[in-house]
Amino acid sequence: MTRGSCLCGGIHYQIHHEIGPIIYCHCQRCRKSSGSAFVTSTEILRSNFEVTQGQDLIKKFENEGKVDRFFCSHCGSQLYSQRASTPLIMRVRLGTLDDNIDTKVSSHIFVGSKAEWHDILDDAIQHQERP
């Protein structure tokens, strides 16, 4: 089990499975939503994710036909995202984890549209788009 929470501590969650491959997404939508060069996430089954506190604080930004993003309505922390086309899968934002994990980045996606001011300096696999 791995625990996480939002910045203000209003929302707490647990992941009831090992953390899988870590992906850095460099697409423009992820950059805009995070205010950073990329979003760091891992894909898990929705059934392995449990909100243990603050469910009422979670709000959703719906992006019709694309990725819906879920965040804390109090502090704005992005928690996870989901696609309507894959309702059993979610992508948890690893910056919200409270527990340490040993897993390292496995790949970069949408490198073809990454921020020009950011250099990728690790040896992880790079994909121009989504593999």
TL;DR?
The radius of gyration is 14 Å and the shape is globular. With 131 residues, the protein is mainly β.
Describe, in plain words, how this protein is organized in 3D.
The protein has 131 residues and is mostly beta strands. It has a single domain (2-126), classed as Beta Complex (Metal Binding Protein, Guanine Nucleotide Exchange Factor, Chain A). Helices cover 5% and strands 40% of the residues. The protein contains one helix and eleven strands, in the order βββαββββββββ. Strands 6-7-8-9-4-3-10-11 form an eight-stranded mixed sheet. Strand 6 and strand 7 (67-72) form a beta hairpin. The longest helix has 7 residues, at 28-34. The chain is globular and about 40 Å long. It starts with a strand and ends in a 5-residue tail after the last strand. The mean pLDDT is 95.
Query: How would the global form be characterised?
Result: globular
How many strands?
Answer: 11
What oligomeric state do the depicted chains represent? Answer: single chain
| CATH-defined architecture | Beta Complex
Query: Distance between termini?
Result: 28 Å
Q: Major β-sheet, in short?
A: 8 strands, mixed
How would you classify the helix and strand content by structural class?
mainly beta
CATH class division: Mainly Beta
Number of helices: 1
- CATH fold annotation: Metal Binding Protein, Guanine Nucleotide Exchange Factor, Chain A
